[in-house]
Amino acid sequence: MRRERLFSEIEGLVAGLRTIRHDLHRHPELGFAEHRTQSVVRAELERLGYRPRPSAETGLIADLHDDRPPLLAFRADLDALPIQEDLPLPYRSIHDGRAHKCGHDGHTTILLGVAAVLARMKDEIPGNIRLLFQPAEEGVRGGGARVMVEEGALVGVKEVYGLHNWPAFPEGEVRVTAGPIMAAIHRFDIVLRGKGGHGSQPQLCRDPIVAGAQLVTALQTLVSRELSHQGGAVVSVGSFQAGTTDNIIPETARLKGTIRSFEPEITARILERFRAVCRGVAEAMGVQADVDLHAGYPVLVNDPGCAQAVREVAERVVGPGRVGGAGLPIAASEDFAYFSAAVPGAYFFLGAGQPGEETPMCHHPNFDFNDRLIPLGMEMFLGLVADRLPALQARGDGP
Ligand SMILES: [Zn+2]
Ligand SMILES: [Zn+2]
Question: Is the pTM of this model over 0.85?
Fold first, then answer.
């Protein structure tokens, strides 16, 4: 099964795939509620001859050869975001307050395109390839990837790959790196309890607003004063709420925010110092700090061999000058981390930025997936099939 042969099937499929993408875009669904999306994907897979089975409630797993152990797996995410769509698209979201603003409609379409090519070439492809359609990447109930892994989605799989469109990188470029590529996330929720009273009588109060202001500033020193010049973490307070009016010192103030990091030692250090700073500022200001700190997705780590495989495919698909690791790792987080923690894998970015303009970023209300990435994403995954499947079979990992 040669790469050129696989690629030759793509062009004839693109128009139909674009129609699928626009249909998915029109009907966005949130994490673990992708019921229509699941049935659209299932129907398409069944039409192609697959026998998909549900996983993680609203996800699906499809094997090219049901009777053989899976060697390679590819993953797409299915869910949309709770954002209002204002773009005047012909395929605009029909649901108020819900839209595909991360491009998962495009990722799902790419994997359906890969499914279509593989189905056509099934007799020439001896190894089993597993397609993972994952629900709830955007964080609902801890995400869908962890559940799929727990349900055994990767049992027997030797390598797993995933991709994401990324408007901050120029269209036509592929970005990948070995090691950490996306961050571990911790969320915090701090309630500062003081003593409220009249705004004219601060001496009778313990002011949680002033304590909160001190704490916001002190938390900024976690990165600037606790880490070396190389940094490697982000601490952001995203919400600070307190008080009701001008002449009352409130009882409480509430701060919420996020910590992003890439290395276990740095994560441990930041979290330890975070707790100490909260304690210390609260004590200094005479208020009580109730700190709730919980872990989100872990760091997404690319296996060096798998990252190299992506790089080699990309160099042939987009050209060597358009492949690299600039701008990586990214401080966003991704539950593909659970897949690549379970078996060797790599996650990579397809640039989607337009020259001379600021392309709306993922999660922006004006974002839309760039359909030109459909054939590019297919070439990347199919290139990995062409390169990695023979290698894994030669290793004696499969039939
Ligand atoms: Zn997203
Ligand atoms: Zn996304």
Answer: yes
